[in-house]
Amino acid sequence: MATASQAATPPRSTMLGVRLREAGWGYGFVAVPIAVFGLFFVYPFGYALYISFFHWGILGKQAGGAGTFNYDKVVHDPVFHTALKNIAEYTLGVVPLTMALGLSLALVINQKIRGRNFFRSAFYFPSIASSVAITTIALYLFNANGLFNHIIGSKTPWFQNAPTVMWAIVGLNSWTSAGTAMLYYLAALQSIPTDVYEAAAVDNTGAWRTFWRITFPLLRPAHFFVLVIFGIGALKLFDQAFVVSNGLGGPNYSTYTPVLYIYREAFTTFDFGVAAAAGVLLFALIFVLTLAQRLTVGREEAA
Amino acid sequence: MTLQTVAAADPFIPRRARSEVARKAFFYAVIVLVAAIFFVPFIYTLTTSFKTLPDAANVTFIPHPWTSSAWHTIWTQYDFKTYIKNSVFLAVVVTVCNIFLGGLGGYAFARLKFPGRELLFLLVPGTLMIPDQLRLIPVFVMLTNWHLIGNFSGYILINLVTATNLFFMRQYFLTIPKDFEEAAKLDGAGYFKTFWRVMLPLALPAISALVILQFQGTWNDFFWPLILFGQGNPAHYTIQLGLAELDFQYTVLWPQICAGSILAILPILAIFLAFQRYFISGVVSAGVKG
Amino acid sequence: MRKRLGVILGLLIAVVLLAATAQAGTRTHKVTNVTLAGWSSGPDEDTLLNQVIAKFNATHPTIHATFQVINGDYPTAMTARFAAHNPPDVFYVDSSVIGAWVHQGVVEPLNSFVKASKFDTSAFFPKLLGAFESGKTIYGFPKDWSPLAMEINKGMLGQAGGKAPTSWAQLQSVAQTMKSKNVVSGGAPICLAPDWARMLAFVYQAGGSLNNLSSPAAEAAVNFYVGLIKKGLAQTPQQLGVDWCGTALGKGKSAIIFEGNWLLPFMKSTYPNVQYGIFPMIKDKTGGNLAFTVSYSMAKDTPNKQAAWTLLSWLVGKQGQTLWMSKGLALPSRKDVKAVGGRQNFLAAAPYAVGWGFGNPNFSTAYTVMNNDLTAVISGGKSVSSMLSDVASALKG
């Protein structure tokens, strides 16, 4: 108790000293991560920003001076417009679905049910394999004569048909990502102290109300995290689109995503300036969207 | 509320109990079905690994004939022993680094005050917004100039800590009540000691999640290992690079790929089973109550 | 526990640093190290190529060659290495990308080496070598090639009269017979890939060419190709539920397909019990075919140009290529090397085969447009003439 009253009124110079020390330690703790991010993300991005104003080939700068011609090309390219449309559809489909599935699974697992370990493993299972492996298996199971079509009696090649392929990828990716979202939500659910639930039980609140009025809002940091991580991941879709279309973004540009656009401009056409411009534009788009999320869902922790 | 009080007074308890049992049975039936669906591709992969190549083309769950030659091939002809060893090494190193550095940085961003903290923190999700394909060339050229290509060092360096992990740890630390740090401060603990002895143990559920996710992320990584050390370097191959060896342009060795994929999945499954029970720890709630 | 974690962490950092410093540096004895990079199309290829390299190393004591397989994403890996000025010394180049790589300046011209070592370039089939030449400059030597041929399921052909078609009209009538007799149950008589890498052969058969896509011949060819699908005589692999037409033949979902020599090792290992015959590619006004070929080329940035040339010239020389051809995995690009038996119907296409890629630096970009538009034409969302003009402008760049 003596220490508490001592700490109550410290002299001004000590306060400043404490603040400086805290700042020093703060910088020290984040030094390595910031260095890694700076070197391997910020610098490459700066590099991309620079070359986006030039004609740039494999071996470097090419003839013709600086200008915004690369941005003009990308902005007026109908293929890029299609890519944006595709990715918008995909993101608006996969993110809510993944979050809902992940949260539902986490809630189920969080209860005291029998065989909890087994179910937790089962639900997480699709997330374990690599995306290429899962996509290959999915292509096999969902082809025109595949197992799925045998069961539901259809002949549609889900992953090769222009109107359905993006939705098939939405289904596939939310299935594989649900386990990961489940883990994030499970960890977050553990941080909700049990007395909250006890209080709700004392008040005789039903299960649904407890969830909706108490648990769901308390999970806000987790919602924000999952929304941002999966949202950004969705906007960067590449692997499945690549495997499904053999790298061509078909059929009929239906699996063309912005990252696939960047990839093809860089590694097929070797027009790195255009690829960089597209990359910068994509970054700007993701940044704006994430900022919007931060200002709405992520509002709370500004304090 | 009225319904409950009525029910409590009702002597016909069995009727209520029966609907309870029915609901529970339905619930279990649903999740067993869901779990079964989640398992089906795995079962299929397992059985295909015991088929001959011509038989692998059939959509059947029973090999006909039954052979373990695929397993034999990947163990002897393709060096999956080494590939697993390499994958384990990389996954462990990267995961440990990420937990330590991500925890440290996440704690600082959550609890320590330093000028420019919010601005610097914008950097963290910012890095996630840059697709790999865009930063490939600059990063590759950088690492080549520093002679970190062709072995694991370049790969480990760029994966020392990821934004996702740091971000997650920060979010988690935000939810821990400040009482613990105050107590530690009163005990005279410095910043690092507070982190190492108090905050990090409290974050066990989050760390468990990260161990599972980062181990798996590194384990399944194909792109960067291929570019940074996987070209014609079989001694350094990870298990994903080994699997790619079996995927040729026209002739796909399905039984071998299935066998290799099962081998690839088992260690991650083991990690998951080992760490998942830490989710159940009520450490935080216990701390608050006490 | 935490202290142990700290110790483990410290140890790991030490191990990492050790690994970094234990870099295998290039040993500069009198042995020059030369790297060859490429991909592998099949398990047999791997083994055979290693044998070829071993033979080279045995006969060339001052040079040590190693083969680096890049499975997964060859173009990206190679681009990264070119950009870092750290390429392999010798590497594969597909004929569809040689134009772009030459244009980017990463491929070494070989004329001076040819002259200095008096290498005989006349031994190569001119059209194949021409796929890797720009004007008079040689940028690579073809290591092998394959055109397209027509492969037909023998049993199903027997049920439809037993006579393999040789013209477009006959192709249509044989397929029609198969359809009406329901010979191919659960599938379609012909498997046609929605791919310009097959359809373009038909354009050349009609007398058209890639340089003039607005000609009536080109339009007629596309209409014929797509028409077969629209008439129900053919289906795409996607409609049949398979990944490519080879699987369609193997699973009995199609009777007639058009594929190259790569079909043979695939069928042998995956569908060994299917009886099929290899017939010459059909003709229309003329024979038309595509030559799919890959070259060995040299990097401009390699420090070991002379040693690289020794390796390259040996691989495509008579001795190296004979060894490479011994398993029949591809056809020889040299006139003085014999192909294994049973390939005469592929070789018959040699006079008509045009190199796939045509040395056009915009070819890979145009290929994206080609196939995306073709799928749209097949599904009915785009007109043939609109696709042809799209492709023509993409080729111009």
Would you kindly provide a brief summary of this structure?
The complex is a heterotrimer of chains A (303), B (290) and C (397). With 290 residues, chain B is mostly helical.
- Measured on Cα atoms, how large is the radius of gyration of chain A? 25 Å
Number of strands of chain A: 2
- Total domains of chain A, how many? 2
- Looking at this structure, what is the CATH superfamily of the largest domain in chain B? MetI-like
Rg of chain B, alpha carbons: 25 Å
Low-confidence stretches of chain A: 1-6
CATH level 1 class label of the largest domain in chain A = Mainly Alpha
Tell me what you see in this structure.
- The complex is a heterotrimer of chains A (303), B (290) and C (397).
- Chain A is an all-alpha fold and 303 residues long.
- Chain A is 74% helix and 1% strand.
- Chain A has two domains: 2-52, no CATH class; 72-302, MetI-like (MetI-like fold).
- Chain A has helices at 2-8, 12-51, 69-75, 78-110, 116-128, 131-141, 147-152, 162-190, 194-202, 207-218, 220-235, 239-245, 258-267, 272-296; strands at residues 56-57, 60-61.
- In chain A, helix 11 packs antiparallel against helix 14.
- The model of chain A is unreliable at 1-6 (pLDDT under 50).
- Chain B is mainly alpha-helical and 290 residues long.
- In chain C, strands 1, 2, 3, 6, 12 and 13 form a six-stranded mixed sheet that branches. Chain C has a three-stranded antiparallel sheet with strand order 10-7-11.
- In chain C, helix 9 packs across helix 10 (216-230) and helix 17 (363-379) runs antiparallel to helix 18 (384-396).
- Chains in contact: A-B, A-C, B-C.
- At the A-B interface, helix 2, helix 5, helix 6, helix 8 and helix 11 of A face helix 2, helix 5, helix 6, helix 7 and helix 9 of B.
